[in-house]
Design a protein that fits this description.
Chain lengths: 145, 482, 508
Amino acid sequence: MDPFAASLWLLRFLFLAALYLFLFAVVRVLVRDLRAAAREPGTEAGRLHVLASPGGEPPAGAVFVLDAVTSLGRDVNNTVVVEDPFASAEHAVLTFRGRAWYLEDRGSTNGTYVNASRIEGLAPIGFGDEIQIGQVRMRLERPRG
Amino acid sequence: MTAASGTSRGAELPSIFGGLRPHARWRELGFLAIVATALTIGSISLGATLRARDPERGAGIPEGAFAPYGATLLAIYLGALLVAHFVQVLAGRRSDQVLLPAVGLLGGISLLLMERLPQNLGGQFGGLAQTQLVWLLIAIAIVAVTAVAVRSDAWLRLYKYTWAAAGIALLLLTFVFGRDVGGARLTLDLGPLSGQPSELLKVILVVFLAGYLSENRALLVEQSTSIGPLRLPPLPYLAPMGAMWAIALGIVVVQRDLGAALLFFAVFLLLLYITTARASYVAIGVVVFLLGSALMYKLFAHVQQRVDIWLNPFADPSGSGYQVVQALYAFGRGGILGTGLGNGLPTVGGRLPIPEIHTDFPFAALGEELGLIGLLAILGVYLVVIVRGLRIAASAADDFRALLAAGLSLVVGVQAFIIAAGNLKLIPLTGITLPFISYGGSSLLANAVVIGLLLALSDRGVEPPPVPRRGRIARLLDRGAP
Amino acid sequence: MTADTYGESSNGSVRRPLGPNIVRVGLALAIAFAALAAGAGYWQVARSAPLSVAPDNPAVVAAARKALRGRILDRSGTILADNRKDDNGEPYRVYRDSAMSPIVGYASRQFGTAGLERAYDAELLGSVRPDPVADLLKKFEPDPLDPQQLKLSISLPLQRAAVRALGNDRGAVVILDPKTGEVLVLASTPIYDASAIANPDTGEAAFAKLRDDKRLPFLPRATQGQYVPGSVFKIVTALAGLGSGSINPDTTFAQQPRAEQDGLVVSGFRVRDGHHLVTGSKALDFYEATEVSCNIWYALTGLKTGGDNLAATAKNLGFGDNPPFDLPLGRSQVTNGGGNFGGGFKDSVELANASYGQAETVVTPFQMALVAATVANDGVLMQPHVVTSLSGKKSGTRTIDPSVWRRIVSAGVARDVQQAMQRAVEGPLGRQFTSGAKVPGVSTAGKSGTAQLGGTGEPNSWFIGFAPVEDPQVAIAVIVEHGGRGGERAAPLAGNLMTLALKSLAGG
């Protein structure tokens, strides 16, 4: 085969090789990413463990798997309905933003407490912290899985 | 990051243009470098091959044989990809870094293919390749702008019924005013521009479905209507689903666009499964689909013809089965290594062997020129896009975003599957396009919107979704629950 | 996970995450794409070979279309058929001279092939079936085909002269070399422009016009035209009679001079003749009868020879049993057959009339040229051929050598006939019947014929002959349709052409 034909073969081969180089590079990243995601507990970002609930709603001892946004309050539309005379209709909202949890008081009458301190507006909250709304106490816990 | 860093008071209002905070995206740059290398080698290979085929060339290596073919177009294209990269860097987006290079590779292959085909096959902007480049540039711009500018999904999430209505209106417009092209009424002319609304329709459909299914997820999952041993979705929800099916049928009957109907229905079923995890719903959907297909086969000649030439194209190899037969010949000629970019597609009397090769059969053309090895690589890239999109869906902040991301990935992936399978005679041939590779502005732009939205959804710094509100019906049902 | 989660609270269902569902859908799609890969593998590997050689595979079609056909040359190397490329780079045929159209034919993409282009199609293309198409596509090799170039024995200048001499008349000229069997001229008129047919732009129109032309330009009259021979057939009768020993050169028939006046009655049928004024009451012998072309003498000879012998000699010469030849040949016959008078003749009347070339005798000009060549070559009929060599770039050159086909009569008999034919051209009486047939300065032999066609219209004008007699270089047969008596058109035409032929063969 003359050198020109040989070089054409080489180019064709190189092109295919380049396509596969891209694929391998990308798949490496994909696999690593998926493994890391698998180590994470899926979409579970955290859990809310109800420690004490004199009103019975939410039931004491219940554990809620949390999505990124969880609203708490007396109104039935909330994610976690808190039946407590000291809870406002729309009391607080618990959000997971990117990497961390935040608790936000929505202008409740009696305030929202994290580890017994009252929070104003938006406050960061970590795993193990205790939340109090009215007389209901809950704890933010790590996701299982 | 427009999301609060933890110290500000009150919820932040969503803003479109937040403060600039550049964030490096080295991985994306690295991938783009590989893409650029691959495309450059490809264009050099194409150029050299075309020179080799020139009957007037002398012996030995002709001068300038190794210059990249269509270097200007390629340079502009790569430049655009780079600009899109930097736009995201400057905007500080922490979005996915694989999607843009993957799609860039597919677009680049499309550009090479369009350069290789005869230029008179199309092009409002001067030749096939140039027109495709223009559309690619617009598509990249859309990807970049959508990825950067979309900061909140409220406009998608809250107005789903508006979107649905808009989609149906678009569909009806095409039914009534559409132009018949090649037996299918797909094209809508708006003054000097013409496009295929069904491409945009699939995005609108996904937006609607994501909103609808995520909002009613609880009910869909927990309640079901039982008809004997069958479990169907709850009755109030059967109606919209029935409407879906009817729309798909309508598309087939009026527009004769079997591919779009199949795509819509498949994406719908898959999203339904993701929402409810009920395999039975999917099974029922498949059965209903098959029944509908059988009915249409009996009733409509054009459906019959499609199925017949799928089953045995060699019965009429120069008539109705011509396209399918020629595509299979192309695959056969390719073999494992292919004939080389620019070296396949033997012309007879100056005509290409496969008609509509730039829109319906780029997969076959690539199969011939890049061989099985090349085809597997391209299928791999599509799979990468799908997997990435599904990954974005899996780690999305709430159901709506998850379903939206999943739906968008599926729309690209299932479409690629349908047309590739049609080319390979695994399913009947349909007229839908191969995303990012087929020639055509409508397809490129719609898919660009998809990728842009996926990038926006994947941004880890994006603001969290709004507080969920449960629907009125759900509340009513709840009150009655034990 | 599910065990811990709060599933059915009335204040909000805790939804199972979407993650696993999404993963399952992803897996399903991956499987679907794997199916695509398998499908691609099926067509590109498993079925690759059979697909690649399907005859309507464009690669196969394109290879055949792009193939350059071999050239066709005349005896001096002039290119008669060549290739030219059109705008798509695909070759089409061009032909140098319309005079060659009955021989060379045409090769057109739309209308197929004719003539030598058809007879030697496979050789001109240089392949049996392009199966190494797969290789063609994968390597940048030049043509794996080996198109052959044909060299013909035809002389283009002579062919042109023959066509020009025939002019507006319909007719044919065949010139052979009796010693080798090579064909120098195989002319038919009217001719047609083969280039117009092969040209993809003009082909359709040209073909339609020619197909509808009432003068039948596509009929190669020299090889396939079928005509009543008239007196030129007498040579066959002579060969049959002398060869079988039924007659000898001195044979005379007593009743012949008388019959000249009234006509010979054969089974109630009167055979007439026209030269009794010239020969008076002399009973003619073979030479004299041939010189004046005496129908009655030949009718009696035919009856004496018998149908079997006549038919047998004719068959030997190729009547109804054509020699193998490069082009298709029409069928010549002495009788329609089916009779039991011997040789297939119905009765004596038919035999008598056939003996001087009427009744149901039908010949092709080519056949009559073979008759002349046999006589010229001392009774040995050489294998006629037009193609003298095939050469390809890869396969080299293959020459077709002269070979004997059949011995028809002994050399002695042949010489007797030669003598008679010479008298027919050069003898005092013969000259008048065949004026113009003699080649100046060269001993020429021949026989003219006037074939009555019945009905109105001029008879066909025939001539067969050869020259020089002692060492024949050329044998010729000429027919001019409706040309009148043999001596009017065919004989002078033959004489001119033989003159030209001898000059060109001598190198002049």
